[in-house]
Amino acid sequence: MQMDVLSDVLRVASLGNGLLSASELVTPWAMEVGPKVRAAVHLVQRGVCWLRAEHLDGPVRLLAGDIIFIPNGATHILSDDPRTPPRPYLEELEEQRRRKDLGQGMDGERCALLCAEITFDQTEAHPLMSVLPQVIHISADAAEADEALRALARVLMKEASQRHAGAELLVPRLIDSLLILIVRHWLATHPFQTAGWLGALRDAQIGKALGLIHQQPQRKWTVEELAASVAMSRAVFARRFAELVGEPPLTYLTHWRLNIAAKRLRASNDSVEQIAYLVGYESATSFSNAFRRHLSVPPGQYRALGNAQ
Prior knowledge:
Helices cover 49% and strands 18% of the residues. It is an alpha+beta fold.
């Protein structure tokens, strides 16, 4: 059975999430979500709003049912109108609560939004987020045509707004599942040459090679072995892998080993020597040198920085 590489990446470079808001906003309003929110998902439940972001050609009008995913911490603004001056999102939500409590200006048009923050415990680039575009926009029509995405989005919006018993446990899991469906949908509608290792999973031979690397990252793989495992010549395999994944096979292997090592440093009490051998290094010294080149700090310092956060 071929390794599920996407699931493996999400296990090692684990994600968390939490609701930023499930709010009904009344005009005028504009909330800015800055880079401290490293990734975010927004679902328009009711009404109309606008999205502004540096990487867009201009403001994008969002309708009920639209889904927005911001995977790389890009500053973005959601608003009732492209001309409305923004506030930081927490300030805007507080202003909306204040107006509601005072009964001021509550006759304007309304927009209901569900906004969630996606968190990850590493400071370095996330291996999934880093291959995605700055903004993923799934229109209401596209979401409606995707049966799984449509059903999950509706359940999530209902649970987040009604907060039934068990919602605190259920909503984060629904957001995790929604994230995977968003990535699947985006991947299915874009050329796989544009998505690094994620897009390469759709290539039968390179996808299989990635699965082998993830199944046995500690193995002393050679390019020849990987090529033979997927019935390709060494030269053709090496060229095809680099074209699709964006880096040579053994470079990818090294980076993945170090991602596993970083996870172990954050989440276990294993010694640096134990982690080195676990991910395929013959000595702690060679592992430490590779780790420093990849993450700019030695393993012990990386662990200490993580414990201090």
